[in-house]
Amino acid sequence: LDIFGSTIAAGVIGILLAPAVGKLLRFFPPVVIGVVISVIGLSLMEVGINWAAGGVGNPDYGNPVYLGLSLVVLTLILLINKFGKGFIANISVLLGIVAGFVIAVLLGRVNMDGVTAAPWVGIVMPFHFGLPHFDPLAIATMVTVMFVTFIESTGMFLAVGDMVDRPVDQKTLVRGLRVDGLGTLIGGIFNSFPHTSFSQNVGLIGVTGVKSRFVCAMGGVILVLLGLFPKMAQVVASVPAFVLGGAGIVMFGMVAANGIKVLSKVDFVKNHNNLFIVAVSIGLGLVPVVSPHFFAKLPPALSPLLHSGILLASVSSVVLNLVFNGIKGERAATCEIRRAGHDFDGRSGNEEASPGDEMLRAADWH
């Protein structure tokens, strides 16, 4: 009950703190954004690779059948994107997973016991285990975790904003963080744990090209329905990890590639210091991925901070950018992000800037 109470409290506090965290956007120029997005993709690649081999903890990890089916799914997704058109190309990931699932069933590699055991209808009741208890220490710990997830979510929002050609501004960031807080609040009420934006889904935008918020909303409705009908949910849950692995490698690689695209707009020639920012920050961001026990001898209380590669890369890139490049005014930082967004849209560097951008620059620098 302490966990649920701290989750509810952290959600409320997160909603209230979202505007303050949103002001950190000025510390995220393109060089920082590019690093964060790249590390998100590279960190997630560990998940995709482990899926392809059968999943962490699988006693048959690395079975050639798993690797072969992952390769089949990956190949199908690429072929559908190459030769498919319109709607077919947009659902290439789904088609690849369905085909891999069918093959896995034919090979007898799918466990359907969960489907048989699950009831047809299941209703989740709020406060199922009793009324929550609000312990100050537990709340302080959960708020710390919430702040970590806010930093990670900021990177994800920036990644999505770049992919949909709508650079994230402060108001948009605050709205997104408030939704994370609201999700955590609702999760605590319904006997769950803190919720945050799911970084794996960022790759879907790059692979499918689908950018509609209405599609995302309908996806949420489908997930709610799956929660109400456990047998349907178990059918989805029975998809083997190695089938998801082929899709995961594509999706997570797309996130990393998008980060590289952002970094391609950063000036590394005239400003050699940007190389140090990228090199050190990506290196630190990959520490938890390459060596999970790197911080094992440090106090366990630091684990939420040190075992998140996204957080390490974010903090490192922000600090190094301040050291090497200094801090710009809030409006100037907003202009820089907007100009980068226009560049991603295909505008040449010689095109005339909009009057609004010129006014913002003048107001800040003068």
Structural description of this entry:
With 366 residues, the protein is mainly alpha-helical. The chain has a domain of 225 residues. The chain contains 18 helices and no strands. The N and C termini lie far apart (55 Å).
Could you describe the largest sheet, including whether it forms a barrel?
none
**How many beta strands in the DSSP annotation?**
0
What is the radius of gyration? 22 Å
Shape: globular
Structural class per helix/strand content?
mainly alpha
Tally of DSSP helical segments: 18
Task: Indicate the percent of residues in helices.
Answer: 55-70%
**Can you tell me the residue ranges where pLDDT is under 50 for at least 5 consecutive residues?**
344-366
Order of helices and strands: HHHHHHHHHHHHHHHHHH
Beta fraction: under 5%
User: What's the oligomerization state?
Assistant: single chain
Q: On the 0-100 scale, what is the average pLDDT?
A: 84
